[in-house]
């Protein structure tokens, strides 16, 4: 049994689900952040548990040929990315392997027989994020904004994040300077004093529209008029300036109240031939370039011929359903968030779709009701949160028996569990991994399931 603090040699076999190196010491699994497959390293045990050990790398005895120097100056401290030290093509291979590992661990499927395709990556895997949410703090009397270091309360100031669109970096930098110049009090988490908590900047990749949201702990924003005037003067490109109030002790960024301080209440973004209005809190995919490839894959998997009834479960603002609407007979979407359904309805109306309807509610409650009324879907598309599909929804799918299920996943473990449940009646035609977040351990997939 390993002891805490003990040093030992380890060969890294693969990458784990959080991007850490995984090896085995006397049959016990060891997780080592920063270590890469094929490397021989010396590790110090930091936390020893009955079934696994966490360690830190002391030195590398044999380096991976895929190890590269991370270009970001705060990479080691920030924790926002996990894989900048791994060559990009090797990252894509590792992400396919993470999907395979999840299937091995959480399903009884015959993995050898599955068509798991090579990960679709980006031509330029930098500056792809259209939105930044940086916490604000004060260090040595200077306003800083960035992310909290891994497992700590140290806020790392990020001047130019290499995975963020340059426009969001610029907005954050200028807003930090404005807060400093106007001496607007910054929120202090421990003391519960001050006002400004987070700077949120979002850019429309295809329109150039920019949105700034200041998240505050109180409704009162000192020198509000001056702040708005300075933003307009120094950042004339910003179309929408809003304040969101979040006085709760929570890890969630946004509170319930949003006040538009200047400009439009939303910005425009375009995906393919669809345009979207994004209000301050509206969810939108963070990597528009890859999102188009992902949605095109969903369209391919759905294989519509203008005769099908389609359900878009967990539909959000309706992006996937609208992407498919032209080739479907009818699309019905549902979500539990009323604001998202309002947005979805407006999006459908703006594009002139008459074959799309949206309802507030859970798919597992609405679907049986529709079937009872004589409306049965041919294709169900699910794009669930990280936790995967609700068990009741999986049961409902098995009862409703659509011809095709297209599963869009942002978490390989829940994907594996869910398709294992559906495997009673469905054959997995293929799984296509996507890299929506280069240099992080995240991997998205589209799985096509066909009724046996």
TrEMBL record:
<dbReference type="Pfam" id="PF01938">
    <property type="entry name" value="TRAM"/>
</dbReference>
<keyword id="KW-0411">Iron-sulfur</keyword>
<dbReference type="Pfam" id="PF05958">
    <property type="entry name" value="tRNA_U5-meth_tr"/>
</dbReference>
<dbReference type="InterPro" id="IPR030390">
    <property type="entry name" value="MeTrfase_TrmA_AS"/>
</dbReference>
<feature type="domain" description="TRAM">
    <location>
        <begin position="1"/>
        <end position="59"/>
    </location>
</feature>
<dbReference type="GO" id="GO:0070041">
    <property type="term" value="F:rRNA (uridine-C5-)-methyltransferase activity"/>
</dbReference>
<keyword id="KW-0004">4Fe-4S</keyword>
<feature type="active site" description="Nucleophile">
    <location>
        <position position="410"/>
    </location>
</feature>
<feature type="binding site">
    <location>
        <position position="335"/>
    </location>
    <ligand>
        <name>S-adenosyl-L-methionine</name>
    </ligand>
</feature>
<feature type="binding site">
    <location>
        <position position="383"/>
    </location>
    <ligand>
        <name>S-adenosyl-L-methionine</name>
    </ligand>
</feature>
<feature type="active site">
    <location>
        <position position="410"/>
    </location>
</feature>
<keyword id="KW-0479">Metal-binding</keyword>
<dbReference type="InterPro" id="IPR012340">
    <property type="entry name" value="NA-bd_OB-fold"/>
</dbReference>
<keyword id="KW-0949">S-adenosyl-L-methionine</keyword>
<dbReference type="InterPro" id="IPR030391">
    <property type="entry name" value="MeTrfase_TrmA_CS"/>
</dbReference>
<dbReference type="GO" id="GO:0051539">
    <property type="term" value="F:4 iron, 4 sulfur cluster binding"/>
</dbReference>
<dbReference type="InterPro" id="IPR010280">
    <property type="entry name" value="U5_MeTrfase_fam"/>
</dbReference>
<keyword id="KW-0808">Transferase</keyword>
<dbReference type="GO" id="GO:0070475">
    <property type="term" value="P:rRNA base methylation"/>
</dbReference>
<keyword id="KW-0408">Iron</keyword>
<feature type="binding site">
    <location>
        <position position="285"/>
    </location>
    <ligand>
        <name>S-adenosyl-L-methionine</name>
    </ligand>
</feature>
<dbReference type="InterPro" id="IPR029063">
    <property type="entry name" value="SAM-dependent_MTases_sf"/>
</dbReference>
<comment type="similarity">
    <text>Belongs to the class I-like SAM-binding methyltransferase superfamily. RNA M5U methyltransferase family.</text>
</comment>
<protein>
    <submittedName>
        <fullName>23S rRNA (Uracil-5-)-methyltransferase RumA</fullName>
    </submittedName>
</protein>
<feature type="binding site">
    <location>
        <position position="314"/>
    </location>
    <ligand>
        <name>S-adenosyl-L-methionine</name>
    </ligand>
</feature>
<dbReference type="InterPro" id="IPR002792">
    <property type="entry name" value="TRAM_dom"/>
</dbReference>
<keyword id="KW-0489">Methyltransferase</keyword>
């Amino acid at each position: 049994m390993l002891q805490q603090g003990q040093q030992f040699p380890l060969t890294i076999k693969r990458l784990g689900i959080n991007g850490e190196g995984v090896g085995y010491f006397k049959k016990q699994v060891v997780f080592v952040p920063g270590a890469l497959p094929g490397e021989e390293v010396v590790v110090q045990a930091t936390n020893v548990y009955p079934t696994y050990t966490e360690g830190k790398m002391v030195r590398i005895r044999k380096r991976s040929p895929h190890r590269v120097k991370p270009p970001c100056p705060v990479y080691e401290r920030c924790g926002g990315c996990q894989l900048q030290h791994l060559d990009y093509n090797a990252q894509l291979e590792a992400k396919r392997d993470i999907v395979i590992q999840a299937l091995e661990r959480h399903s009884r499927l015959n993995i050898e027989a599955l068509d798991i395709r090579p990960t679709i990556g980006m031509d330029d895997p930098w500056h792809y994020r259209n939105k930044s949410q940086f916490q604000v703090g004060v260090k040595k009397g200077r306003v800083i904004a960035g992310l909290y270091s891994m497992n700590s309360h140290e806020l790392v100031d990020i001047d130019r994040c290499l995975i963020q669109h340059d426009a969001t970096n610029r907005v954050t930098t200028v807003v930090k300077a404005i807060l400093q110049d106007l001496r607007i009090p910054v929120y202090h988490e421990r003391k519960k004093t001050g006002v400004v908590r987070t700077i949120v900047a979002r850019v429309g990749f295809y329109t150039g529209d920019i949105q700034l949201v200041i998240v505050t702990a109180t409704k009162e924003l000192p020198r509000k008029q001056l702040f708005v005037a300075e933003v307009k003067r120094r950042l004339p490109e910003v179309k929408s300036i809003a304040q969101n109030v979040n006085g709760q002790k929570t890890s969630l960024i946004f509170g319930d109240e949003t006040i538009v301080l200047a400009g439009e209440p939303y910005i425009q973004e375009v995906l393919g031939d669809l345009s979207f209005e994004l209000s301050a809190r509206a969810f939108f995919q963070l990597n528009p370039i890859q999102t188009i490839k992902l949605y095109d894959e969903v369209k391919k998997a759905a294989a519509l011929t203008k005769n099908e009834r389609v359900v878009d479960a967990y539909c959000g603002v309706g992006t996937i359903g609208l992407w498919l609407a032209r080739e479907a007979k009818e699309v019905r979407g549902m979500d539990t968030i009323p604001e998202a359904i309002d947005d979805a309805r407006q999006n459908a109306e703006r594009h002139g779709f008459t074959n799309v309807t949206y309802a507030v509610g859970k798919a597992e409650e609405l679907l049986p009701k529709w079937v009872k009324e004589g409306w049965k879907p041919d294709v169900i598309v699910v794009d669930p949160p990280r936790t995967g599909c609700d068990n009741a929804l999986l049961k409902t799918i098995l009862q409703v028996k659509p011809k095709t299920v297209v599963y869009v996943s942002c978490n390989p473990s829940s994907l594996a569990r869910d398709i294992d449940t559906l495997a009673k009646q469905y054959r997995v035609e293929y799984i296509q991994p996507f890299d929506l977040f280069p240099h992080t351990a995240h991997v998205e997939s589209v799985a096509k399931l066909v009724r046996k």
